[in-house]
Amino acid sequence: MIYLETETYSAASRLAADRIAELVTQKPDCVLGLATGSTPVGAYENLIRRHEEGLDFSRITTFNLDEYVGVPKSDPNSYDFFMRKNLFDGIGLSAASTHIPDGMAADPEAECLRYEAALAAAGDMDLQLLGLGLNGHIGFNEPGTPLDSQTHCTPLTASTRTANARFFASLDAVPTQALTMGLGTILRAKAVLLVVCGESKRAILDAALSGPVTPDVPASVLQRHPSLTVIYTPEAPHSSK
Ligand code: GLP
Fold first, then answer.
1. Catalytic status, residue 137
2. In this predicted model, what pLDDT tens digit does every residue of 154-178 receive, in sequence order?
3. Helices and strands, counts by H and E, the chain
């Protein structure tokens, strides 16, 4: 494992973006696994800047970790909308090269199987970017998720719904279910980049990296990944805009 600690969120975001930009430069047709939440927004801002300076993203393919069930793409709270706003539009990516589980699918189980098949057909992620939930979740793999799980439909815990309520009109408006890559899916990535920002996440990060590998702390499964980079800053995420 490579562990990097920075003083500021800006520095952590720059480091994360550098790692992604390096991969895109070396392998212009790479497959990127992407995350939502506040954490990666700074890295995405840096990538948009790199694109404006000439970095070509036109041949990459992306797969997002997860999506809420029942939130249409047109809703600003959908992860589809979030990705277009915070990254895809800024680096010139069209829907054809981006993949996000369809939270509006009539048959969620079939959608999960379709997503796994699309990932496998693309050769899985060259690099998976991850944030960390306060309860140790990655993607929406909540505590108790089997360590070998594949893309699946999951109920969201009270902790996760409360943490994400800041984006919604009220706690009641936060979806109760999501589709997410599984822990086994994430482990198939050739490299993993875990970015964790804020003192409030230090204890769960320590548990994930140094405690037992257990479904109780889903991110602990990353100890089994042969190419894990962790970037931690005590500063909480903020946008530079
Ligand atoms: C969300 C997402 C995760 C994200 C995590 C942390 O629920 N499903 O992919 O990493 O919670 O979010 P944040 O970066 O906003 O703290």
1. yes
2. 999 999 999 999 999 999 999 999 9
3. 7, 10
Read off the pTM: 0.97
- Residue 67 vs residues 21, 71, 240: alpha-carbon distances, Å: 25, 8, 25
Instruction: Choose the residue to mutate in 9, 34, 36 for probing ligand 1, maximizing ligand atoms within 8 Å of C-beta.
Output: 36
Nearest CA to ligand 1 atom 12: 37
Look at ligand 1, atom 5, and give the residue with the nearest C-alpha: 133
Measured from the CB, is residue 133 less than 6 Å from ligand 1?
yes
Q: Over 60: is that where the pLDDT of 240 sits? A: no
Query: How far is the C-alpha of 143 from the C-alpha of 134, rounded, in Å?
Result: 11
Q: Which residue has the tokens 């070998």?
A: 148
Strand-pairing partners, residue 189, are none
